[in-house]
Amino acid sequence: MTQVTMYTDGCALGNPGPGGSAVVLLSGNHRKEISKGFPYTTNNKAELSAVILGLENLKYSCDITIYTNSEHVARGINKWTSFNKNTKKHEIQKKGIANRDLWDKYLELANKQKTIKAIWVKAHAGNKENEKVDKLAKKEAYEQRK
C-alpha cells in the first residue's frame, strides 16, 4: 500500500483575480512539487484546484493524507469523500454546492484512491511544506499578472 502525504495551497489576488495552486507530494523518499496559474479565479477554487492537481499526478491508488490551510476544503474533502461512498454523482449534483464542477472532478479522482483524509493546518505558522506551497501558489498568481 502506498502512503502519500499531500500539502496544498491556492490563492487569488483580489479574490477573484489572477491565482495559483500548488501541491507538494511526499511518499517515502520521493518528493514532487507542482504548481499552476489561473488568469481569473477565487481563493476557494484555487485551494480545491491544488488538491485536484495533486490527485491528477498520482499514478497508483494510494492512502492519502492532505494537509491544507483551507478549512472549507478540509471539511469538504472529509464530508464528500465519506458521502460519496454511498451516493451517486447525479445525487451530489442536486445538492447545489458552490464550485460543483471542481467537487465533481475531485470526486472522480478521489474514487480512484484507497483512502483520503484531510487535515487543516494553520497558515503561516512555520510548517515547512505549507510555507512552500504558499510560496509556489503566490508565484503562479503573480505570473498571471504579467
Mean pLDDT: 90
Query: What does the oligomeric state look like here?
Result: single chain
The amount of helix comes to: 40-55%
Quote the beta fraction. 25-35%
Total of helices: 5
Strand order of the largest sheet: 3-2-1-4-5
Total number of strands: 5
Shape: globular
Low-confidence stretches: none
Secondary structure category: alpha/beta
Distance between the termini: 43 Å
Largest sheet: 5 strands, mixed
The helix/strand series, from N terminus to C terminus, equals EEEHEHHHEH
Radius of gyration: 15 Å
What keywords describe this structure?
146 residues, 5 strands, 5-stranded mixed β-sheet, alpha/beta
Describe the 3D structure:
With 146 residues, this protein is an alpha/beta fold. The chain contains five helices and five strands; from the N terminus they run βββαβαααβα. It has helices at residues 43-56, 71-84, 89-93, 100-110, 128-144; strands at residues 2-12, 17-27, 30-41, 62-68, 115-120. It has a five-stranded mixed β-sheet. A hairpin with a 2-residue loop joins strand 2 and strand 3. Helix 1 (43-56) runs parallel beside helix 4 (100-110) and helix 2 (71-84) crosses helix 4. It is globular and about 40 Å long.
